[in-house]
Predict the structure.
Amino acid sequence: MNTSTSSSGAAPSNGLPRIAVLATGGTIAGSAADATNTAGYQAGVVGVDRLLAAVPALSDVAQVQAGQVASIDSKDMALTLWTTLAQRVNTLLASDDIDGVVITHGTDTLEETAYLLHLTVKSTKPVVLTAAMRPSTALSADGPLNLLNAVVVAASAAAHGQGVLVAVNNRIHSARDVVKTSTFALDAFQSPEVGALGWVQDGRVEFQRSVVRAHTVATEFVIGATWPGVDIVTSYAGVSRVAVDALVMAGVRGIVVAGTGNGSIHTSLQQALADAVSQGVAVVRASRVGSGHVMRNGAAPDDTLGFVAANGLNPYKSRVLLMLALAAGGAGPVVLQRAFDTY
């Protein structure tokens, strides 16, 4: 780990919190040929030391230790990197020399990584993800302020025990609730169903509500060496059963369906998914809508066919939870439904 300002021992010499900043790439570390280009850029090419050097005010907020975990476009996030990142975060937080962790991440899969960490970090210390919608070379790049605000949140006593957080565009979101809602806007990250947890501005952090559902130290989930295969299919007009049959043949252990409306599923796809359940594959009904809850439908189709309802999780976060639940030994719709109702 590269160190931008060193720290050692049980307490920081200057009284400032000790925050580890882990970089994974993304648009926040992107570079384009000119300052007006916010689309044709290469993600993940700017190293963590340059990201920190662009925000000199960080030295007034915390003692920062910098680590480069990856340098990718987050569309290419892999399960092996999730394992590495989660283990790195847990190791850092177990040290008395670290008070919190900030992760710079690409926007494409940030909500998935954040929720994974929300369920697997075993500490009450703050973990804050941040990102940017414009590359570092752009006019009015949003990355530097987002990074500063993320460190401010991670250094705040109010962030302890709130689970994994996302700090972007002056808002603080819970990892469970936050989703990307725009392809270009600076306020792309929203928590559509419940709203942000709070805000951060000019060094001030205010939480207006607390996280209610179990997370971090209150979960049974840990990062293991292997991940059970779970994939996502979508219901739409005229959909066939081909994708489901292919996934079952490939040996997946779970399928999340992005259904229409309240997780409703086309008849052809529903029969394929029922057949998958009969072969031991877990099936979770989520929705492609973007907000709202997928509630358990009782006799049809959930009880009759053995499906699980995703509750307030979108298909992508549902996949994260289903993988972790299966890896923890969860089996059958009753046990898996309990996990979705809890987390």
About this structure: The chain has two domains: 2-218, 230-342. Residues 79-93 form the longest helix (15 residues).
